[in-house]
# Entry
Amino acid sequence: MSRRGLLRAGAGVGAAAALGAAGWVGVPRITAPGQPGVLLPSATPVPRPFHTELPIPAVLRPVRADATTDYYDIVQQSAHLDILPGLRTEAWTYHGTFPGPTIRARSGRATAVRHRNELPHPTVVHLHGGHTPADSDGYPMDVVLPVGATGTPARSHGHGLITATGSVAHGERTYLYPNRQRAASLWYHDHRHGFTGPAVWRGLAGFHLIGDDVEDALPLPRGDRDIPLCISDRSFAADGSFAYPLLDPSLHTPGVTDRYMNGVLGDVILVNGAPWPRLRVAPVRYRFRLLNASNARRYRLALEPAVPGGGFVQIGSDGGLLDHPIRHRHLDISPAERFDVVIDFAAYPPGTEVRLRNTLGTGSAADVLRFDVSGPPVQDDTAVPDRLTDLERLDPATAVAERTFLFQLRPDGWTVNGAPYEPGRALADPRRGTVEIWRFITDFHHPVHVHLDPFQVIARNNRAPGPFDAGWKDTVDVRPAEMVTVAVRFTDYAGPFMLHCHNLEHEDMAMMADFQVR
# Structure
């Protein structure tokens, strides 16, 4: 594909000037307009959709508690899972399941999670969306070596010499999460430098849900009608194992083979670890916490059949409740984004089979989940208020600094501001408590994630924010040749933190950068 053809496919010719000014080079393969990545076909027949009941991740119970903190133990271990009929899939898991167990925390009450690494390779745990001290944030060099391993990790990871190996733990590490933040749907996943893609693909992901009194006071669906949905795509080898195009199957050198450098797409859509499951629902309102846990795939989610006015009522984004609900006919969700939505199944006659579709997908990737509406109409004691919460808004006029981060492909790989990731080299030094304006400019699709604190989108290409940019966000989908402007403010914790592309193949190939909060 020519440069001109790629621009038309991804963003339109009008954005070409931004790429030229950015010093654009190279053409990674794309699978379809608007969709980064290349499909990796499974080598085994994929199952028929809607034959598996939706599993709900178990809620992990604390091993102990004191006046301020709940304490948890999680073992990172290999497990053989029943994902495809008649085959067993070896996964890397938190506590033996994919997704891992859900932690339900309370705002203002700390959570301490001790992770024991019984896997064959080093790991790092990042609480995505967590307002977390630097030493528990999951800095990609702060590895936990496998139980029984000796020595330190290799200093070269294929992206140049690493000058600081980070804080190395042997066998286990306890991560402390103060949870000094609003109620929100967070998730935890592996974050090891150069190897996040294969680790998450093999199963290292789980929910961390924070609640608070503000959310509890609302008449929203709760209990078994408050359901987390971890959406991911995977491919499988003939023996049922996860297929993934590693450059080095021994996991000593990071990255994927050249064909998949723009992202790996699977042909099996999993929801909570099950292929195209179904969920029986009553004709009442349900709350769904949608997480895109795919490595690279974007989804445009829609309900079929549709209902007048749109079937999704968005009540929350990455960073928690919106100030007021927003109704959507469809939802665009890029890797690592979360949307909390309410669906009222009373809009459908009993017996209706409602499919959650992915209109960006083709073939097997076009379906996600089916809701089977069953039972007679019942009294629903829930509601979605017109006002959800008082949402603080950052004032761009108070910004003390403006910074630009350019995400682009260069001859030395995926880069931020012209250079691949170098641990310890900070591209910004924001001061705690101050507002800054950050601009993310891209060549291709890059879902940009910022650690420590969420941000607010204030413009796209110097125009209004998009329909899915509302509220506090920690990940934003930046489309090809686009500039997204955000207001951000970091609080409480000094130290090194990160921003990076959450297309995990891009991240593993060095599209990350440090910033130093002072």
Q: What stands out?
A: Residues 1-27, 155-164 have pLDDT under 50 and may be disordered. The first helix runs from residue 3 to 10. Helices lie at 3-10, 16-22, 196-201, 213-216, 504-508.
